[in-house]
Write a structure and sequence with these properties.
alpha+beta; D-amino Acid Aminotransferase, Chain A, domain 1; Rossmann fold; 3 domains; 6-stranded antiparallel β-sheet; 4-stranded antiparallel β-sheet
Length: 376
């Protein structure tokens, strides 16, 4: 789950590092009144709060030098889509004069099975271009997850991007707070870009946090209405509320698999043979009849999906249970769209018999099944 900038900065502040003073606006709010109540005055930066990168280049971040600018820009940004998303919130933040912009982030290096800190003396909107053109300017430092980031390691990273003195100490303190955020919130990513340098201190001018969806049961504070974020499509919202692991794509062949790896491989097979998947839908291992029924019914109702391919390899998933779920969905909704099933593994013969009794043929060869669904 992606967090808004204002949420990320609030977390950083709560864990002990100062962030720019700001106020959060909804469309109904009076920006001038809220700013005065918070002790803010121009110049300020008005920021669209949408869950996409590149807001600055897309025109979602503006400088307001006067009160009239504030009123005008608030009206403008509330009505300006950023990469197709309209903001529900704006962040009005004090403008911080700064001499330089740095970059700092923590992600997971899956090949090393460790967090890795990324830091650079170059930050700002063009960090992607800098990473391509000057890859040597991006410092990478792996952290032992059993020990965490120690102060001397944070200072070592700061020195490696040319910092020294009090500025080095401020940067090192920020990195340690960033690592606390990373650990406490089970993050896939924490990032500050740009990280501004003002005198002998750093201050996060922007911040991003992405929380691992698998950890959300530990973070009830993020149980917000997922429609608010703009991160998910209408059908992805419906699927999440139904407990389905569903991602919408732009094709017309509905995909159901058991296990993320098999489901992604199934999508690759469809692409390879000239089809276009409409979605990723993983029913997981050990799927029950009711879950299978729910998944099949969901794709039957999706308006853009023209046909469905279900690829099941039974390990802890039982073929007979899957077959009963398919039949239950068809009995309730009817066979509204062509359905091709590949079924093998545990209780395969029983599952195949159940499907055949209800007029469906189950394939054993996934390539043959893919070619069949594409030809329909």
């Amino acid at each position: 789950m992606k967090l808004f900038e204002f949420e990320a900065k609030r977390i950083i502040k709560e864990l002990g590092f100062p962030v720019p003073r700001s106020v959060l606006l909804e469309k109904k709010d009076d920006p001038v009144r809220k700013m005065k109540e918070a002790g803010l005055k121009p110049p300020v930066v008005v920021k669209s709060q949408v869950l996409v990168a590149g807001r600055g280049k897309a025109g979602g971040i503006k400088m307001a030098k006067t009160w009239d600018d504030v009123v005008r820009l608030v009206e403008e940004l509330f009505n300006k889509p950023i990469k197709g998303l309209f903001p529900r919130y704006l962040l009005i933040e004090e403008a911080i004069p700064h001499e330089k912009e740095l970059y700092a982030a923590i992600i997971i290096d899956r090949s090393e099975r460790k967090p890795v800190i990324l830091a650079s003396q170059y930050g700002g909107m063009d960090i992607e271009e800098i990473a391509r053109e000057k890859p040597e300017s991006i410092v990478r430092y792996h952290v032992d997850p059993f020990i965490g980031l120690r102060a001397f390691e944070a200072r070592k990273i700061g020195r490696s991007i040319g910092l020294q003195g009090r500025l080095l100490n401020s940067f090192a303190a920020f990195l340690q707070v960033l690592y606390k955020v990373f650990e406490k919130y089970d993050a896939d990513l924490v990032e500050s870009n740009p990280l501004g340098v003002t005198g002998d201190k750093v201050i996060p001018l922007d911040a991003r946090i992405i929380v691992d969806d698998n950890s959300l049961y530990r973070h009830k504070e993020f149980e917000k209405d997922i429609e608010v974020t703009g991160e998910y499509t209408e059908w992805e919202v419906k699927a999440r509320r139904m407990g389905l692991a569903f991602v919408e794509l732009d094709g017309d062949i509905g995909i159901i698999g058991n296990g993320a790896g098999l489901t992604m491989t199934t999508m690759d097979l469809v692409y390879l043979h000239g089809g276009k998947p409409a979605n990723f839908l993983d029913i997981g291992g050990g799927a029950s009849k009711d879950l299978v029924k729910k998944a099949v019914g969901f794709l039957m109702e999706h308006p853009r999906i023209k046909k469905i391919f279900m690829n099941i390899f039974g390990g802890i998933t039982r073929g007979d249970e899957v077959a009963r779920g398919i039949v239950a969905a068809i009995e309730e909704l009817g066979l509204k769209k062509p359905l091709v099933v590949r079924l093998s593994g545990t209780n395969e013969e029983e599952g195949r018999s159940i499907l055949e009794e209800n007029g469906l043929t189950a394939y054993t060869d996934p390539v043959e099944a893919v070619k069949k669904v594409i030809s329909l």
